[in-house]
């Protein structure tokens, strides 16, 4: 049995590495949801941010992003804030209903519960890729 598993891992190192790291990533993200309270809210505005970056040849590149402004109700209080983070994809519309995650330990730490605002974070994506490369390299070099 162990030799069949070893052969499968060696022959499918890429798939196995992705499966192991992805499973760990999803487990940690789901476990992290215990640290948040959930509230229903809505998008009340989209603030457009334009940033300019100069390229190596002297030309500049303009990048436009929309930062969502959110309103949600906590008891009798109405709380408004903007997400404050530039994300690669902002696909919200005005008056769209969203779920807000509020940290149980720090009520000023809020997130929109969506793909690009909770599940895919730049730092975690980099760690995910590094973990994948480590597991894949370990399988290719040390399991024989």
Task: Describe this entry's structure for a reader.
This protein is an alpha+beta fold. Helices cover about 40% and strands about 35% of the residues. The protein has helices at about 1-10, 15-30, 115-120, 120-140, and strands at about 35-55, 60-75, 75-80, 95-105, 110. It is flat and about 60 Å long.
Question: What structural class is derived from the secondary structure elements?
Answer: alpha+beta
Largest sheet: 5 strands, antiparallel
Spatial arrangement of strands, main beta sheet:
3-2-1-4-5
Average pLDDT figure: 85
Number of strands: 5
* Share of helical residues: 25-40%
Sequence of secondary-structure elements = HHEEEEEHH
Q: Point out poorly predicted stretches.
A: none
Could you give the topology of this structure?
Blueprint: H1 2-11, H2 13-32, E1 36-54, E2 60-74, E3 77-82, E4 97-103, E5 110-112, H3 115-119, H4 122-142
Helix pairs in contact: 2-4
Keywords:
144 residues; 5-stranded antiparallel β-sheet; flat
Q: Could you write a compact summary of the structure shown?
A:
The protein has four helices and five strands, in the order ααβββββαα. The protein is α+β, with helices and mostly antiparallel strands. α2 packs antiparallel against α4.
């Amino acid at each position: 049995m162990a030799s069949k598993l070893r052969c499968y891992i060696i022959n499918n190192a890429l798939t196995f590495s992705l499966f192991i790291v992805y499973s760990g990533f999803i487990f940690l993200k789901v476990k992290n949801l215990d640290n948040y309270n959930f509230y229903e809210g809505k998008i009340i505005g989209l603030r457009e941010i334009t940033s300019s970056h100069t390229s190596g040849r002297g030309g500049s590149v303009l990048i436009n992003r929309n930062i969502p402004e959110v309103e949600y109700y906590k008891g009798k209080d109405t709380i408004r804030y903007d997400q404050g983070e530039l994300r690669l994809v902002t696909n919200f519309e005005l008056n769209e209903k969203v779920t807000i995650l509020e940290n149980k330990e720090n009520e000023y730490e809020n997130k929109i519960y969506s793909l690009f605002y909770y599940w895919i974070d730049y730092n975690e994506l980099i760690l995910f890729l590094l973990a994948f490369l480590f597991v894949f390299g370990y399988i290719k070099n040390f399991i024989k």
